[in-house]
């Protein structure tokens, strides 16, 4: 990981001093220094900021706040708007293209190798750039292609899929790298066996696997596997999709979380994002609020200690939020099917604890140590 970088604009000297302490640098007097996310090197040789922004709205605010890693997708139907906003910021002189890290994705209806180059050219045209920094296969299951505008092809109330092997799709994506259309390629929502198959059957391995990760669903085995193979893990839904009306997930609104918020003078989202960065993944939260965008980046000037980390690690495991269960009968479906998931009995939890004890060294438990979940269920 390389040090944080900074961008200068006008502001007061007091704010400069605070950020200078974070960066270990002395900024120019009378110039505001925006804290930039540290970067991590991909196996392709390119560097990616450790914090990303999943584009919905407020791209201008995100750029001006200091975000440089933007995540979009063909399926989100916002590539044109994202590209226009970033290009406007470039034209205004607020950022250079080489400092932007842009991720987009190949949608499931375009798995046919004959479609990959054509649709990538279409995405480049929509974005208004001549290359994409990171191009991901959105999901291992291919959908039937009817036309580019139909994202979810349906027949008899069921999603219609195809039998195209994701290995063939991957090889077509490798050609995009050779053509200079994309710099790095990766996958999203792939399990360990599927990633291993790509590594064994292809000329290049994915530089990234973007999957669901949040404190109640940490996917430790998958993260460890990717780390061992030099694959960076990007975490979507990193907060667990908080809902203030029904106070879910419980950990996010718990008394334990409130204690951490008070201790560090941070929001629950900032606590979680910092925890995930320390865990070694790259979180990409969604936000349309300028305040939340600013807060989400401002997580590199505080640290969680061992007790904080143990409390967050003690959050009870929950179910996956994003299941794509409409295609769960497909042979390339990457997640556990409902019938394969063991019942969460006391015996099962004891077996899981024994399994984890074999895999991991025992951690010392402080007397009176608490978890974030404690006392809320």
Main sheet makeup = 8 strands, parallel
Distance between the termini: 39 Å
Number of helices: 12
Q: Which residues form runs of ≥5 with pLDDT under 50?
A: 1-34, 341-346, 352-369
The percentage of residues in β strands lies in 5-15%
Tell me the number of structural domains. Answer: 1
Description of the molecule:
This protein is α/β, with parallel strands linked by helices and 377 residues long. The protein has one domain: TIM Barrel. It contains twelve helices and 14 strands. α2 crosses α3, α3 crosses α4 (113-127) and α4 (113-127) crosses α5 (166-179). Residues 1-34, 341-346 and 352-369 have low confidence and may be disordered. One of its GO terms (molecular function) is oxidoreductase activity.
Question: Strands, helices and their partners?
Answer:
Layout: E1 6-10, H1 13-23, E2 31-35, E3 39-41, E4 47-49, E5 53-54, H2 59-65, E6 69-71, H3 79-91, E7 101-106, H4 113-127, E8 132-137, E9 154-155, E10 158-159, H5 166-179, E11 182-188, H6 192-201, E12 208-212, H7 220-228, E13 232-236, H8 255-264, H9 268-279, E14 282-283, H10 290-297, H11 306-313, H12 346-359
Parallel strand pairs: 5-6, 6-7, 7-8, 8-11, 11-12, 12-13, 13-14
Antiparallel strand pairs: 1-2, 3-4, 9-10
Keywords:
alpha/beta, TIM Barrel, eight-stranded parallel beta sheet, 14 strands, globular
Q: What's a quick, concise take on this entry?
A:
It holds the Pfam family Aldo_ket_red. The chain has 377 residues and is α/β, with parallel strands linked by helices. The protein has helices at residues 13-23, 59-65, 79-91, 113-127, 166-179, 192-201, 220-228, 255-264, 268-279, 290-297, 306-313, 346-359; strands spanning 6-10, 31-35, 39-41, 47-49, 53-54, 69-71, 101-106, 132-137, 154-155, 158-159, 182-188, 208-212, 232-236, 282-283.
């Amino acid at each position: 990981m390389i040090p944080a970088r900074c961008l200068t604009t006008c502001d007061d000297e007091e704010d400069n001093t605070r950020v200078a302490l974070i960066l270990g640098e002395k900024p120019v007097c009378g110039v505001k220094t925006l804290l930039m996310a540290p970067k991590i090197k991909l196996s392709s040789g390119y560097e990616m900021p450790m914090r990303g922004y999943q584009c919905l709205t407020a791209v201008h605010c995100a750029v001006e706040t200091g975000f440089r890693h933007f995540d979009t997708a063909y399926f989100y139907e916002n590539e044109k708007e994202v590209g226009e906003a970033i290009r406007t910021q470039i034209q205004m002189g607020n950022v250079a293209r080489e400092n932007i890290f842009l991720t987009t994705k190949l949608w499931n209806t375009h798995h046919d190798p004959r479609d990959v180059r054509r649709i990538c050219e279409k995405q480049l045209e929509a974005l208004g750039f001549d290359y994409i920094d990171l191009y991901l296969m959105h999901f291992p299951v291919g959908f039937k292609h009817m036309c580019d505008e139909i994202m979810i092809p349906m027949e008899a109330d069921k999603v219609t899929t195809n039998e195209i092997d994701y290995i063939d799709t991957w090889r077509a994506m490798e050609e995009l790298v050779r053509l200079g259309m994309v710099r790095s390629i990766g996958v999203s929502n792939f399990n360990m066996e599927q990633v291993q198959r790509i590594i064994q059957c292809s000329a290049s391995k994915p530089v990234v696997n973007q999957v669901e990760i949040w404190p109640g669903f940490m996917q430790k085995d998958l993260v460890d596997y990717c780390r061992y193979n030099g694959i960076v893990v990007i975490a979507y839904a990193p907060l667990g999709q908080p809902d203030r009306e029904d106070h879910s997930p419980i950990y996010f609104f718990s008394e334990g979380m409130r204690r951490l918020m008070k201790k560090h003078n941070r929001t629950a989202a900032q606590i979680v994002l910092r925890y995930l960065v320390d865990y070694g993944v790259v979180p990409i939260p969604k936000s349309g609020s300028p305040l939340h965008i600013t807060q989400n980046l401002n997580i590199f000037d505080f640290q969680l200690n061992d007790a904080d980390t143990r409390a967050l690690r003690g959050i009870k495991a929950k179910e996956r939020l994003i299941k794509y269960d409409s295609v769960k009968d497909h042979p390339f479906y990457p997640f556990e099917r409902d019938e394969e998931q063991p019942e969460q009995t006391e015996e099962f939890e004891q077996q899981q604890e024994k399994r984890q004890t074999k895999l991991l060294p025992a951690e010392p438990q402080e007397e009176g140590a608490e978890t974030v979940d404690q006392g809320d269920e």
